[in-house]
Amino acid sequence: MSQSTIRETWQSISARKQAERASKIPSEWLIPEALMPSDEEDRVQEFPYTSGFFTKRELLITDSTASEVVSKVAAGEWTAVEVIKATCKRAAVAQQLVNCVTETYFDQALIRATELDEHLQTKGETVGPLHGLPVSLKDQFNLKGVDSTIGYAAWAGKKPEEESTLVRLLRNAGAVFYVKTNVPTTLMTGETVNNLFGRTSNPRNRKLTSGGSSGGESALIALRGSFIGVGTDIGGSIRHPASFLGLYALRPSHGRVSYQQVTNTFLGQEAVRSCAGPMCRSPEDIRLFMASVAAQKPWEHDPQIIPLPWRADAEVLPEKLCFGFGMGDGYVNPSPPLRRAMEITRDKLLAAGHRIIDFIPYESKEASEIIWKMWLADGAEEIRRDSGLTGEPLPPGVEMMYGHSNASLKPLSVFESWQNQHRRTVLAQRFLERWQKTAEVTGTGRPIDALITPNSVTPAARHSMGQPWNYGALSPLLDLTTGVFPVTEVDLVKDVIPGDWKPISEKDREAMEFYERPENHENAQVGLALIGRRLEEEKITAMLKVMKEVVGFHVG
Predict the structure, then answer these.
(1) d(CA 317, CA 334)
(2) Annotated catalytic, 213?
(3) What is the average per-residue pLDDT within 315-330?
(4) Res 555: pLDDT
(5) Which of 29, 163, 217, 245 could make a disulfide contact with 92, Cβ separation 3.0–4.6 Å?
(6) DSSP string, 1-31
(7) Could you give the domains of the chain?
(8) Contacts of 12 (CB under 8 A, 6+ apart)
(9) Is the pTM for the entire model greater than 0.85?
(10) Cα 101 vs. chain centroid, distance in angstroms?
(11) Quick check: is 138 catalytic?
């Protein structure tokens, strides 16, 4: 990092970066003033369809799934060039509507798409299973010559010397990169906002968060500016944004998707691992991503990857499944929209002949206590160092947890860290034993096939509100493969707190006071988690297809 960059104020760096970003949007993709929604227009999800700004062909292409795109490009029905042009235009519009993009790569993407079309025409074969597919990347993933700032003003202009291994593998499979998406400063909060690029909003209601830390990805995909986006997750950063915006997603176990050469917070912290995974519009696209990555033999490029090809036989499911049903964690109950989503899912699965048994993940509360100690083991030394390079303030939620205002924050000793990690080991054993014991009551002769739970206590909330409690610690702490599927959206009539609601803890009381009114979550979509065991990516992906077919998406 140059000394000149350090001497700049964070305000001047931000102004420069935002001006650079704006200058890269072609003039023909700028929304005319007459069409631009006013600041008072909160819902912009339908803009591409109602504005007349897109051709029917552009809408047809960008409304398709990733699986449909690669099929049509391979068959010669669409060219990679027309796909990338339509996608870049829709991404540019999404950026103008909800501020979801950090870096654009449009010119390089067009060159790449042209090369792919020429290869297909001359060779008569595709480069790989993702031939011609635009893939968006969370800001963490390194592209040559493109900043990876993770929201720190001081990191602007610090171009990565090496590309992320996953980027190379996806390119080898035929992917086309064109944008990187917004994240919160430090990555360690559920609201996508930073001093460098600003705040990302939810296209279904711009008063609401798109989630975090993969909130730029969720907003872009929801506005059909991406078919598949690559997010990361250490505490809910894929699962929450996907749930808030009606997406399918997968938080794989560590060792299935490369995290090598990724810009990150907590370098060297390996007690609990962040994992990269796909966020998209269908379970079929999750499979496309995961199988395509596995076909590149990533273990030959990244020593952290398990040498495990995609196991098609593990996708074959029993005709009748039994799911654990976790309505909350026994400490905090889900708010009415999440409760209704759980009930919809239960009723639809039972009607389809599957079995449901109660399985409350009581371990969630202790998992949260353990994981927080892991995240804060250095006493926030790294975060305070990096934010201090330009004197930029941390976003309020990050400041409260990691900033200097948290005077009680102290680093753990080595012994204290070891004790905390051992506590995780004991918890994992206890959770597995309880999971296995369900074989006695499932009626299938097997333990539960997966656990269905809420990802969060409430749906997407208004900006800066945060979440009153996080159900998301158990999956990363125990490295459990976890999928996300959409169920419904907030209903202002149905999703009120019942008059006979009684709190089960003081934190539960706080959570319901936080929820207060469904109007604070208007138009938010509601998804759920499908939790499997470690390294069950194939099985969870197959069960997400069951959720799509049986549960579907229900409004009201």
Answers:
(1) 30
(2) yes
(3) 98
(4) 57
(5) 29
(6) --HHHHHS-HHHHHHHHHHHHHHTS-GGGSP
(7) 1-264+271-310 (3.90.1300.10), 315-377+412-556 (3.90.1300.10)
(8) none
(9) yes
(10) 15
(11) yes
